[in-house]
Amino acid sequence: DTVFVLNGPNINMLGLREPDIYGHDTLDDIASRLEDQAQALGIAIDMRQSNHEGHIVDWLQEANAVGARAVILNAAAFTHTSVAIHDAIKAIAVPVIEVHLSNPHKRESFRHVSLVGQAAKGTIAGFGALSYALALDAAAKL
Ligand code: DQA
After folding, report:
1. How many domains, the chain?
2. What HAMAP family does the annotation carry (predicted)?
3. Would you tell me which of 25, 51, 76, 123 could form a disulfide with 8, CB atoms 3.0–4.6 Å apart?
C-alpha cells in the first residue's frame, strides 16, 4: 500500500530557492515529516525527485504497474507545459493528486494553466509544505 510522491524540476533546490515563495524547508525536511505521517496512517511512501520530464512519465507508469494507492505529484514547471505528463496521468488507473507549495493562480499568468490539473483527480496548492501533508491525508482516504 504505497503512495508515490513525485517531484519535478528545481524541487531539489527547496530551502535555497526563492524562500519567500517556497519556504525554508528542504525536500528532505518535507520527506521526513511525510514519512512520520505515513507511518501513523499505516501506509508507505516512495518519494522521488527529478529534473527530467521523462523520469516523471516513467515513474507514473511504474506507480501504475506496481498498483500504487495514489501518486502525489508536484510536477513543478512541467505542470504548465507537459503534454507527456498529462497523457501519462490519463493513461494510468492510479489516482493522481496535484500539489504545489505556492498558489500558481496568484502568480504569473504563465502559471495559470495546469496540464497536470486537467488530468489529475484533484489539486492542493498554496499551503507550502502543508500541501504535501494534506495530499497524503487525501491519498490515505481514497
Ligand atoms: C510549483 C509551482 C510551479 O509554478 C513552479 O514552476 C515550481 C513549483 C510549486 O510547488 O509551487 O517549480 O510547482
Report:
1. 1
2. AroQ
3. 76
Backbone angles phi, psi at 132, to 5 degrees: -65, -40
CATH of the domain at 85: 3.40.50.9100
Cα-Cα-Cα-Cα dihedral sign, residues 53, 48, 138, 126? negative
Catalytic residue among 100, 105, 112, 132: 100
Pull the grid cell for residue 83: 503534454
C-alpha–C-alpha distance, residues 111 and 81, integer Å: 9
Q: Is 24 a catalytic residue?
A: no
pTM of the model: 0.97
How far apart CA 60 and CA 93 sit, in angstroms, is: 10
Residues 62-89: pLDDT tens digits?
Answer: 999 999 999 999 999 999 999 999 999 9
